[in-house]
Amino acid sequence: MLIAGDIANIHFETLKPTDNCSTALDLMKRYDLEGLPINDGINKNKIIGMIWRKDIQDAYQKEIEKREITSSFASRISMKKEQLQVNFMEGYSIAEISPPKTFTGKSLRQLDIRAKYGIEVLSVKTREKGEEKIKAIPGSDYVINESDILVIAGEIKNINIIRRIP
Question: What pLDDT score does 88 carry?
Answer without folding.
Answer: 62
